[in-house]
Amino acid sequence: MEPSSAVVHTDDVAWNHAYFDWGAVLTENILRPLHRGEPVDFRPDAWISHDRAGSITVPVDVDFVWVEGTGIIREEMAPWLDASIYLQGDLDDQERLLVDRDGDSSEQREHVASWLREELPFMLREQPWLRATLIVAGPSPVDHDPDTELVVARPPSL
Questions:
Q1: Contact 31, 63 (CB under 8 A)
Q2: Among 71, 103, 131, where does a domain finish?
Q3: Whole-number pLDDT of residue 146
Q4: pLDDT digit string (tens) for 10-64?
Q5: How far is Cα 137 from Cα 86, in angstroms, rounded to an integer?
Q6: What residue numbers bound the domain in which 137 lies?
Q7: At 122, which helix (H) or strand (E)?
């Protein structure tokens, strides 16, 4: 039997809540229940107040739970994570991908600017690359074929 998994997106936890101040919400409503062996069916307060349909769900019988998103690799999350992967990327490439995905309206540009005003200090404070179990490098000066090869580096020793 193949292992099963579920994905929790931090963007769903943070939606209309906060860019990075969502650690306690994630821990109390998703990670603690999972560690107790309970299923998750969680509607964040912002989903209720903004009438967003659905919920964040994780069945009890999955073998792996992937929690993805910027900000998950931080000191307060360390007790709840068995392993972590830091994806290093180029800021210009990330901005281009956001425009491709979400458009280039003035509202979207302001959203990205607001995000970066919080993300950059957060990243400098938490330094997730130092806590990561594995680092996957994005565009890199290392000579390799990006279509067929992946450059992976071990995190520096703490």
A1: no
A2: 71
A3: 66
A4: 999 999 998 999 999 999 999 999 999 999 999 999 999 999 999 999 999 999 9
A5: 8
A6: 83-158
A7: helix 106-126
In a domain, 76, yes or no: no
pLDDT per residue as tens digits for the range 95-112: 888 888 888 899 988 888
Given 51, 71, 91, the domain boundary residue is 71
Helix (H) or strand (E) holding 132: none
Residue 132 structure tokens = 């990561």
For the whole model, what pTM was predicted? 0.80
Q: How many CB atoms lie within 10 A of CB 149?
A: 10
Residue 89 contacts residue 140 (beta carbons within 8 Å): no
Together in a domain, 94 and 124? yes
Element (H, E) at 109: helix 106-126
C-beta of residue 110 within 8 angstroms of C-beta of residue 65:
no
Count of domains forming the chain: 2
Confidence band, pLDDT 50/70/90 cuts, at residue 2: confident
Check whether residue 64 and residue 96 sit in a common domain: no
DSSP label at residue 28: I
Q: Would you say residue 77 lies in a domain?
A: no
Map residue 32 onto helix, strand or coil.
Answer: helix
121 by Cβ neighbours in 10 Å (0-12 / 13-18 / 19+) ranks as exposed
